[in-house]
Amino acid sequence: MNAIKVADRMINVHSDIRGPLFVEAMEMQKRGINVLKLNTGNPATFGFGLPESIRKAIEGHEERGVGYCDFKGMPDARQAICEYHKTKGLVGITPDDVFIGNGVSEVVSFALMPLLNAGDEILVPTPSYSLWGNTVHLTGATPVYYVCDEKSDWYPDLDDIRSKITDRTRAIVIINPNNPTGALYPEEILLKIADIAREHELLIFSDEIYDRLVMDGKQHTSIAKLAPDIPVVTMNGLSKSHCLCGYRCGWMIISGPEHLTADYKKGIIQLTSMRLCANTLAQLIIPAAMADMETPHSMVAPGGRIYEQREATCSELAKIDGISFVKNSGAFYIFPKLDVKKFNITSDKKFAADLLHATNILLVPGSGFDWKDPDHFRIVMLPEAGEMREAIRKIGAFLDGYKQA
Predict the structure, then answer these.
(1) Which of 109, 188, 355, 359 has the highest local Cβ count within 10 Å?
(2) Residue range 37-59: mean pLDDT, rounded
(3) What gap in Å lies between CA 303 and CA 121, rounded to an integer?
(4) How many helices (H) and strands (E) does the chain have?
(5) Nearest residue to 182 (alpha-carbon basis) of 312, 43, 334, 304
(6) What contacts 98, CB < 8 A, 6 or more positions away?
């Protein structure tokens, strides 16, 4: 019997967050080495516990989650999601426009599969959470990466977006707040992206999983609010705002003129009904979570953990010669830049590996977010502020005199 080989569609798929370097770090842990895992945005790893609102919502109601529910999701959960997005300014939406999935990761596949044929293209930001590019590859379509410009606070480069639209382009993806940069897009940028989509008759996918984790008195704006005449698929969930990654609770809501989305929705219904339903126990807590905005607010307000961890990280990064960065306004990530000439860096993966071996700190290099140059890396700012300060100091000490061969 011949060796079983992987399908060609997997060639371009990568997951550096839990890739080879992560596997190596886990082997180090097995040998008794304590690794600080700044690679993945999993709040529970760093002591973020179950919110009391969630605990109360699920206790005593477990029986409701025993059977299959509606393939779109439980009615009260979809109602709560719909009402939340109405508060964000979405118009003309009903619970029937909501599809609940096992995390946004699953929802993205449900959104892309019915849209894309082999040879189609979809505009994806760089840097970008690799879920988007990977899922496009799996459909047989091609992700075309438009640049988010570090010199402009990591906002999308509108001219670059326009230059990459072809007759095969089907949609534009935005991630706002962004992963891995933590950038929050202003209305003027969103309006211009909507203008481009309107002009070229493109669907917009808006990943807004971090919309409740915004700092410095700023406000998140949904692009669907600004473009009610355009089909927009908005993704969101509870993994980050309520620290419920393991509950796998995400959703999408489809807005825009119904006559433009009706056929597309039929394809989504085919996939979600084939899946039967999403995790029902996780859906039980959605109404309570949507009513509990204090949990996310308490983390990002001054004195809250995410806010103070961001402040500690940025204050220490600013002291390191050879590193520059744009301070994030949302999420809990920052995407610093290395002076490649100073450190003679030709491989960001080698940098991340060298750092791990020298300091026991695990990071994801910029190439893991489809960034083409070897000059960036992502820091997850979830450990307590004191631990973040110490970690950044260790990175600074490591870089003092570091040169790639």
Answers:
(1) 355
(2) 92
(3) 44
(4) 16, 15
(5) 334
(6) 72, 73, 78, 81, 82, 251, 252, 253
Give Cβ neighbours of residue 292 (< 8 Å, ≥ 6 apart).
Answer: 51, 53, 54, 242
Tokens of 312: 């500690």
Can you tell me the distance from the alpha carbon of 62 to that of 118, in angstroms, rounded to the nearest whole number?
43
Residue 385 exposure: Cα atoms within 13 Å on the Cβ side: 14
Residues 301-322 have a mean pLDDT of: 98
Angle between helices 130-139 and 103-112 (to 10 degrees): 40
In this predicted structure, what is the pLDDT of residue 363? 96
**Alpha-carbon separation of residue 167 from 163, 201, 376 (angstroms):** 12, 11, 33
How far lies 151's CA from each of 283, 365, 375, in Å?
A: 41, 20, 14
Q: Is the pTM of this model over 0.85?
A: yes
* DSSP-derived secondary structure letter, 40: S
Identify the DSSP state of 134. Answer: H
Longest Cα–Cα distance in the chain: 63
Query: Of how many residues is the chain composed?
Result: 405
The C-alpha torsion from 282 through 284 and 286 to 289, rounded to 10°, is -100
What single-letter DSSP state applies at residue 128?
-
